[in-house]
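Retro notes (design track)

What went well: tokenization of the new backbones is finally stable.
What didn't: we kept losing track of which sequence belonged to which structure.
Fix going forward: every design gets posted as structure first, then sequence, in one message. First example under the new rule, 104 residues:
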């Protein structure tokens, strides 16, 4: 694990496996499932201030499958399919009228 990063959660053979919280040096955090040290399954990422960034599914540390991405800078929400961390299908785009203090 890089310096300044923190992890609280389940381990298997000294590797992040199961449910946990990973906090990056900049304060951004991921809360969800890990397998063999990478994001795997359902999880959420949060901005440093606690606002929700992404809610969805991961495979081998990348966004894969259905997810909702919250873009704070443009105040938009994208909902759709992701493959290898990239949005491939946009089902809906919403303008956000309230803050992003949603939870997984």
């Amino acid at each position: 694990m890089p310096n300044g990063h923190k992890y609280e959660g389940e381990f298997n053979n000294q590797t992040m496996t199961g449910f946990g919280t990973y906090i990056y040096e900049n304060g951004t955090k991921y809360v969800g499932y890990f397998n063999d040290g990478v994001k795997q399954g359902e999880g959420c990422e949060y901005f440093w201030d606690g606002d929700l960034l992404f809610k969805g599914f991961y495979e081998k540390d990348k966004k894969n499958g259905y997810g909702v991405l919250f873009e704070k800078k443009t105040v938009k929400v994208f909902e759709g399919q992701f493959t290898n961390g990239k949005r491939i299908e946009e089902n809906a785009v919403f303008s956000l009228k309230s803050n992003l203090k949603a939870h997984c």
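Added context from the reviewer: The two ends are 25 Å apart (CA to CA).
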